[in-house]
Amino acid sequence: MNGESRAVRIVADLMALSARTAPKAKGDDTLVIRVAVGGELLALAEEMRTISEQKQIRFFARDADNVTISDACLLVGTHGEVTAGVNCGGCGFPTCREMLDAFEKRESTPDQGPFIAPSCVLRITDLGIAIGSAVKTASIHNVDNRVMYSAGVAALSLGWLEDCTAAFGVPVSVSGKSPYFDRQRR
Predict the structure, then answer these.
(1) Cα 89 from Cα 37, distance rounded (Å)
(2) Is the CA virtual torsion 113, 117, 120, 121 positive or negative?
(3) What is each CA distance from 153 to 29, 48, 168, in whole angstroms?
């Protein structure tokens, strides 16, 4: 591993720190955070390609190419079934108890999306704030990055973010030109 790759790994760890310390609803942390490196990047990219083929979602394969050439990938998921207990209705239910009842009664279907619903809107917001905090850290350190729904879906599929209901990935790289800037659509 060269010096630049080591530095990017350090920044990925700092991004994880930024995600962990980002503000959260009522101060409750429901995040699961992992940094994938080395062979894990190849496994993540392969899962993204598999999902692309199975679900006919072409951009997953394009994103997999970016993950393959990255130095690391920050993965952040949340436990959306853990409510903030404020009965805000943002999840589509009048009370947190009703959302939890619906969550417990949900049935898995073959055409179900990769995220598990219903989820507490405040936990999903926490996830977004954590991702924003992480990419801010990457930017401060001049590390190229891209928020990827596809990488989060693959991490969930691989079981890397145990029991999370939603997740995103942020691959990071250092090179003369950002590999995430002018990606070609497949």
Answers:
(1) 39
(2) positive
(3) 21, 8, 7
Write out the two tokens for 166: 């939603």
Token pair recorded at residue 8 = 């990017």
Ramachandran area for residue 55 (φ above 0: left; ψ -120 to 50: alpha; else beta): alpha
Q: CA 7, CA 143: separation in Å to the nearest integer?
A: 9
Burial of 137 (0-12, 13-18, 19+ CB in 10 A): buried
* Nearest CA-CA partner of 186 in 96, 57, 45: 57
pTM: 0.94
DSSP strand pairing (144-145 vs 72-78): unpaired
Phi-psi region of 166 (alpha: psi -120 to 50; beta: other; left: phi over 0): beta
pLDDT in tens, 112-150: 789 999 999 999 999 999 999 999 999 999 999 999 999
Q: How far apart are the first and last CA of the chain?
A: 31
Q: How far apart are CA 130 and CA 156, in angstroms?
A: 17
